[in-house]
Each structure stands twice: as structure tokens, then as C-alpha cells.
Amino acid sequence: MFYFCKTINWENYKNIMAKFKLDEVDHQILDMLIENTRTPFTDIAKKLLISAGTVHVRVKKMEEAGIIEGSSLTLDYKKLGYSFIAYVGIYIQNTSQTKFVLERINKIPYVTVAHITTGKFNIFCKLRAKDTNHAKDIIFRLDDIEGVYRTETMISMEESINDKKRLMHSIFQEM
């Protein structure tokens, strides 16, 4: 199972709001597109009692303003056999090696997210694997990267919250 979701740049969103005012109709359009990007503009228009052309123009303006940045495909990894999720904190010998280490991490396709962080870790990653043995192999690959002197792994038991709409609604209320 897969579906598309619009990518919204929330940082740009607030900066643009000074120039570009979104109203309740724009919020409802975004809400429906976050739920399912493939929703036809005609369906959105019917639900909001506006024309499909109006939906198209409003979405286009939000794209031009940088509020909506493209769309992405979301896969159901469980159905593909990659239900194991782990988070790996990476300690680097010298912070000057960060770029080098990130380039090596980027070559490991099972690492789906990597953040440069402050605090305990230099880099914090999310990985997807088939099972614990597969995850172990991926973590060993991370450990073998030159400049990495230690990793710390946390296994995700369950993804309990993954709700972009709650954030969007909070941002709308702040405006």
C-alpha cells in the first residue's frame, strides 16, 4: 500500500505568512491534501463548495510561495518486510568529520533519516530493517565508518504518533 503526501516546508511557511495570507479555505485544502495528495481538485472543490479552478489557483499560489514543496510517495514498509525500526545515535571522534561521516551514512540505503544534533550524539539516525539480524548488520556498517567511535541504538517498539495534521492545525491557530 502506498500514497502520496504533499511536503510542506513549515519554516518557510511562517516567514511567507507575512506576505501571503492563508485563509480557512486554504487551511482546509491543505488538510485534505495532507490526508491524501491524490485527492482530485474536483473532490476538494465539492467538499468546500468552491470551483475546481479556485482549488487549482490556491494550490498553485501555495506552491509558488514555497509553502507546498512537491509531493512524496509513502510506502507501507511493514508490507514490504521492513517493519523493524531503530534509532542510532552516532558519536564522532572530531566534529570536523561530520560531513565525511554523513556522506558514508548516505551510502547505506537502510538509514532513512539522519540529523546533525547537539547534545549527546553528533548524528542521530533512523534505520529500517527486516529484523534484528539485519539491523545488527546495518549498525555494524555504521560502526565501521571512519571517524565513528561509538554508536548507541534504541529499538522502536511501535510508532505511536505520526500526525502531520496536528502540527498544521497548531500552526494555523497561532496565525
Shape: elongated
Q: Order of strands side by side in the largest beta sheet? A: 4-5-3-6
User: What share of the residues does DSSP label as strand, in percent?
Assistant: 25-35%
Helix content: 40-55%
What is the strand tally? 6
Count of domain modules? 2
First and last CA, distance: 35 Å
Main beta-sheet annotation: 4 strands, antiparallel
CATH topology name of the largest domain: Arc Repressor Mutant, subunit A
CATH architecture of the largest domain: Orthogonal Bundle
Radius of gyration, Cα only, in angstroms? 20 Å
- Helix-and-strand structural type: alpha+beta
Low-confidence stretches at least 5 residues in length (pLDDT < 50)? 1-5
- Give the helix tally: 7
Chain-averaged pLDDT: 88
Topology summary:
Layout: E1 2-8, H1 10-17, H2 24-35, H3 41-48, H4 52-64, E2 68-75, E3 84-92, H5 98-105, E4 111-116, E5 123-129, H6 132-143, E6 148-155, H7 164-174
Antiparallel strand pairs: 1-2, 3-5, 3-6, 4-5
Helix pairs in contact: 2-7, 3-4
